[in-house]
Structure formats: structure tokens, C-alpha cells
Amino acid sequence: MPNDRSFSGFRAWLPAKRRAAAVVLAGVLAIFSAGVPAAGAATLDGTTTAAAEPAAVEAADLLATLPVKGRAPKTGYERALFGPAWADVDQNGCDTRNDILGRDLTDVTYTSSVPCTVKTGILPDLYTDTTISFVRGTTSSSTVQIDHVVALSDAWQKGAQLLSTEVRTAFANDPLNLQATDGPTDQQKGDGDAATWLPPNKGFRCEYVARQVSVKARYGLWVTQAEHDAIRDPRRLPRPASPSAGEAAVPAAVYYANCAEAVVAGAAPLYAGSAGYRSGLDGDGDGVACEG
After folding, report:
1. C-alpha angle 223/175/144, rounded to 5°?
2. Taking the CB of residue 179, how many other CB atoms lie within 10 A of it?
3. Which residue has the higher pLDDT, 23 or 214?
4. If DSSP states are collapsed to H, E and C, what string results for 214-234?
5. What is the DSSP letter of 246?
6. What share of the chain has pLDDT > 90, as a percent?
7. Cα distances (Å, whole numbers) of residue 96 to 20, 67, 210, 211, 233
8. In sequence order, what DSSP letters do the residues of 148-192 get, joined into one string?
9. b/e 93-128 (16+ beta carbons within 10 angstroms → b)
10. Which of 26, 222, 242, 273 could form a Cys-Cys staple with 67, CB 3.0–4.6 A?
């Protein structure tokens, strides 16, 4: 079980000159890392030290390894159960929030000569496909927030209750599970999973759900059936082949008069080819109806 593993020195400090490359490397390497945490230290560029992760696998194959279950009760959930907010888990003298700001922002300046507390920077926001200026301050810092790709509350309801506080702290500070993004967008997401929320930037959704799969596999968490089905959307991850010639497609057996009905039924968003989907509900014609 992951809760038996040690996470001392979980992340190594990434030199400033490598931060720009880290964004690209994390998108290619880290999201497809398989299995539970390795004994070695995970670095901000998606690699590991001392002990390597198992061989990389396709996200769809990794998804197949995740248990599919219903949500456990949220009873007892508290943020403190995942350790201190933005703990310095790698003991580099800099908290996790500033580590991630330093990784994801460009043109970074710091409050002192020590490259730790970020003062200003530019965020090429992957969730919204916009550029956001960050300025540290009591009223301006919230412009850029750090999202838990797999939300803490979602994790609590899907297996994290069974983990130790040490492992939950590692989960909450794992660079693979953290992404700097637009503050209001992060607030809109809340604790949503792939079945209830996806980034507005459709071009990033594949990488986003792949990271969720990788994080859940790393920490031994599960997915709900709706979440599993949403992740298997053919525009993001491979799915079984279409029916061969001569085989009739199974018609949708569910009809929703509007998106409000789909939301109440817990079926939204609806994907092309799935029960209940119809073009009349898909305003932008992207194959996903009732998505927000």
C-alpha cells in the first residue's frame, strides 16, 4: 500500500535555468508515470531519483488498472488531514506554492536574492489558454492559484481516507498533481472530477485527464463509473474499436429535454455516442453536451 512508503525528500529543488523546460517535460514524462510512488525522490521535471518509476504506459492502459467504485462519504474530510497547506516537503527552504509558481511562470522575479518567494511573473495558463500577469500582494496573489489536479476532497472520497497523513501530505504537494492556473477558474472547478469539470481550454483536456489518471494510479485511488467513462472520451483517450460492418450501433435509451435534466440525473457532461447525448444539447458542436 502507498501509505507504507517513505516520502522524505519527496521533491528535489529545480535550478532556475531548468524551470522553463520543466513545464514541457512534465507534460510529456510525468503524466504517463505508472504505479504507486517510487522509493526515490520525484523531481519537478517529472523524473525520479534513486529509484525509477515503472516503465511509462499509455494513459488509457493505466486507466484500466484503476478500480471503479462509488464515492465514499465525505464525512470527516478536513484540509488539515492532508498536512500543512503548502508544506516544504522537499526541505529546500521554499514552500510548495512558490515552487510551483517558479516552475509554471515565466519572467519570474523574487522578493529577495534567494530564488524562493515569487514576486512577479507571467503565467501561460494551460487551463484557459490565456496569459496572466502575477504580482504578489494581499489583493493580487489570488489572481493565480495552484490547483490540485485531483482535488483533495475528491481524493478523500476515493481512497485517500485509507492513506497515512504522511502520504496524504505527499499527495497534496506532489508536483504532478499541481498546476498554476487562473484563480476564478480554479474556484469554479471546486472538487470536481473529470465527469463534472474540465478545463475551458479544450486543447489541454487530454493532458489534464491523463495527469488525473496518473495521480490516482500513483496513490492507489479509484474512479467512479461516470468519471471513468468521461475519461475514455474518444477525443482524449483511446477507446474500443467501433462496431464492425453489419453490427448495429446501440441507440441511446435515455432522453434529456435539456441540460438541467442531465445535471439533475448526474449524467452531465454528455459525450457523443453515449446515452442521452444529442446535438441539440451540444451548443458548440464539440461532441460534449451540457459541459458547464
Report:
1. 100
2. 25
3. 214
4. HHHHHCCCCECHHHHHHHCCC
5. T
6. 57
7. 17, 30, 22, 18, 32
8. ESS-HHHHHTTTGGGS-HHHHHHHHT-GGGEEEEEHHHHHHHTT-
9. ebbbbbbbbbbbbeebebeeeebbebebbebebbbb
10. 222
